[in-house]
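Late entry, evening session. Most of the bench is empty. Finally got around to the prediction I had been postponing all week. Sequence below, unchanged from the version circulated by S.P.
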Amino acid sequence: MIRAAERGRFTLCLSRFGAWELGRVAQRMGFGEEKHKAYFRRLDAIAELVDHNQYQGDYPEWLQDSDDRPLVATAAVAQTNYLVTYNIHDFPVGARFASFEVVTPDMFLDILGREGEVEESH
């Protein structure tokens, strides 16, 4: 996904909370310090920083974990089309809210592939 964002296929929107959460997950996945730093240098170069605190609305009924509110708020403030996550326990695939739909990373890459096919056929 990072390569696709680096090539301008989509805009990656993150809040500081989202970046922190990605860092926490990367550590849990066993990223060493150097790999972790390199990963975040790449993210820093491509991500659009969004202030999730700007969100003043309600949250979807399906969101059960209040700790995940900053992620929903980020997607809502950025008016994204997709909230991409592996956390299908707290974010039901296909759920819609505000401007976005919840998808897994694999689903998102499939969507990007289909969009690329459409663009190339014109």
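Two things to note before I forget:
The longest strand covers residues 100-103.
The helical segments are 2-6, 16-28, 33-46, 69-78, 105-120.
Will write this up properly tomorrow.
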